[in-house]
């Protein structure tokens, strides 16, 4: 399908400040359902701009271009892959012309994310992101204090973190690090080392390699020394070893605060005692200022062919404003705002751990849409089951890795 091209030298002149009483109908293309989109963004926007009607148009990865061609949306919310694609095809409006006058305060927005978007746009900024996910090390200060062990530091590697975990006395029933299971720890460590379990170009599984063998050996050593526990508990189980105070650390996303810590606090009340704090997620030794654990999506961009560019700019400007971020910061959420000053933080924790590092723009992520349906979950299951076999001495590591490779390739070859 051929896209007509357009660029930001459109006939329409967009003002930085539009009239809040302006009338318009704004067609928004998003993969979020209408109720969620309106609750998160639309309802607050309509309070300030009561005469701008929002029409939500949904799409999937399979009908992305068809929906653009048919619906001709004014505003997009895009994945990074989609953002980069449309920027290259000159479908998006260049926001630099609106932001360059410094009226819109980019300074408060995570600079690493802005730079990332500019890099994807070949130096131009075609969109903004209001929130993101990233990981951090959660640690139990009381356990560290009890055993006189120094707290984890920002910018530690996985090997350094595991060495720290080994200092806790397993004989006391305390482990240094909890991760959900073998596969979760392997995935976290492989991300920081830029390892992927599949080469999409050649359609080959790449698990039976020296790089993965070294990684799996580190995991097995940590497990056998009881520095790390991998209990393979359900994802939705609130009372994991970190929450119950038997593990000193875990590594997880920002939403762990809401899904686990706040949940336990709500359920147990005064009986729940967890003196926790944060450090940045583990990093690659060669690039300690970047993180591979940023999940960035929902990039808002204007269609260069839209006849409602002013209304679309008003929406983007509002959703990425101090005003909007401040309002959202009053309640806990599942994402970190890109205006990091307004992260919900009633207990005064080191929330900067989630945004101190920059997104790793060199990471090459697997596009699972090019692989058989369900491949991601299934390959995780294979890695976990084979890892568990090594943990219980049912297989040697070499046998398990050969099996991971064979079973994974069979999975990949399915049509």
Q: Give the oligomeric state.
A: single chain
CATH names the topology of the largest domain as: D-Maltodextrin-Binding Protein, domain 2
Cα distance, first to last residue? 25 Å
CATH homologous superfamily grouping of the largest domain: Periplasmic binding protein-like II
Strand content: 5-15%
CATH architecture classification name of the largest domain: 3-Layer(aba) Sandwich
Q: Mean of the pLDDT scores?
A: 91
Low-confidence stretches: 1-11
Please give the number of β-strands. Answer: 16
Number of domains: 2
Order of helices and strands: EHEHEHHHEEHHEHEEHEEHEEEEHHEEHH
Basic shape: globular
For the report, how would you describe the main beta sheet? 4 strands, mixed
Helix share of residues? 25-40%
What is the structural class? Answer: alpha/beta
